[in-house]
Amino acid sequence: MALTSLAWGLFFVWIGASWIASEYYSISMTSYVALGAGLILIGLNIARTSLGMKLSKFSLFIGIVALAFSGTALMGYPLPFWQTIIVLIGLFIIAEAVSSLRKSK
Question: Distance between CA atoms of 16 and 2, rounded to whole angstroms?
Answer without folding.
Answer: 21
